[in-house]
Design goal:
By secondary structure, the protein is of the alpha/beta class. It has nine helices and 13 strands. It has helices at about 5-20, 60-70, 110-115, 135-140, 160-165, 170-175, 180-190, 245, 260-275, and strands spanning about 30-35, 40-50, 75-90, 90-95, 125-130, 155-160, 195-200, 210-215, 220-225, 230-235, 280, 290-295, 300-305. The strands form two sheets. The protein has a seven-stranded mixed beta sheet.
């Protein structure tokens, strides 16, 4: 099975540029809506260019091929959006994840430009909450000089996630090809260590914003639940594909650290979303990644917001 590694991702990106298959990044304005006491915006960090072989790798070949064709992803590569959530709550301006920065892929790391274009000063961000420690969620914490890009923010990391990336299991449990993920996580975590607060499931960094335990993609992956209306879940990387994640949450994915647990978490979150009729923001769903989940036959489907 193909491993999800920085080397393979960058190789895929380079090949895409060589073939002129990847269009130049086009800035997208924030997608903003009110949710209860919160103002929520989705801001693009650009997109990743990934091998299509990563998608639904655990599914039956014929069924997988049909879903990829339906999603328009039958080529060797596909573009994966990277949607950052920005939340205004009273005097707080909160980022959920911070993007790739300039050390991962040339098609990503666009959050700063898009915030600036929208008139949002990163110096005014008060809190940054990380769903997990993968490059496209964490590596944008520092600039090319390793200085914080949100110097006035307090940072929030799930304690289990922090411990994983700093512990022996990170090196033992990940393939050698992903060693760069560990180095990058530790570099960015080191930059925030004096301003970081540890989270556990059930915590509320601000009133009405609760931490939800969603392990599997990484050992300490978390989502966020916002109170108001039928609810809103900022899901990080639990549900990443608009067809496969919803129709076949049981298919194991290459990107999950603990594949069986990831599949269980997907089913649990899908059931919650469909039952509660909550909104969902998916980090890798088609921009802006906002929609609802409905039950369909024995599975689910994602209905994008109009």
């Amino acid at each position: 099975m193909t491993e999800l590694t920085r080397r393979s991702l960058l190789a895929a990106t380079a090949a895409g540029f060589a073939a002129r298959a990847v269009p130049a990044f086009a800035a997208a304005p924030p997608y903003t809506f009110k949710h209860g006491a919160f103002e929520v915006s989705v801001v693009s960090d650009g997109h990743l260019v990934l091998p299509t072989s990563f998608l639904g790798a655990g599914g039956p070949p014929e069924e997988r091929a049909a879903l990829l064709k339906a999603a328009g992803q039958s080529g060797e590569q596909y573009q994966s959006p990277t949607n950052i959530t920005l939340i205004r709550s009273g005097s707080d301006l909160i980022l959920v994840d911070i993007g790739s920065g300039d050390r991962f892929m040339p098609t990503a790391g666009k959050l700063g430009d898009n915030l600036k274009a929208a008139g949002i000063d990163r110096g005014k961000i008060t809190k940054v909450i990380f769903t997990h420690g993968h490059p496209d969620h964490l590596w944008g914490a520092v600039d090319d000089l390793d200085d914080l890009v949100t110097p006035n923010a307090t940072f929030y990391v799930a304690a289990r996630e922090w411990d994983f990336w700093h512990g022996e299991e990170a090196a033992r449990g990940l393939p050698a090809e992903r060693a760069g993920f560990i180095t990058g996580a530790r570099r960015n975590y080191a930059a925030i260590k004096d301003k970081v607060k540890m989270l556990k499931p059930g915590d509320e960094p601000v009133a009405g914003l609760q931490i939800v335990d969603t392990p599997g993609h990484t050992q300490g992956h978390i989502a966020l639940a916002l109170a108001g209306g039928d609810g809103l879940i900022v899901g990080g990387d639990v549900l990443t594909h608009p067809l496969i994640s919803f129709q076949h949450p049981e298919w194991k994915t290459v990107a999950d650290h603990v594949p069986d647990q990831g599949a269980q978490t997907r089913r649990k979150l899908l059931d919650r979303l469909a039952t509660d009729k909550s909104k969902l923001i998916g980090f890798h769903l088609p921009y802006p990644g906002v929609g609802i989940v409905e039950r369909k036959d024995s599975a689910w489907r994602f209905v994008a917001a109009p």
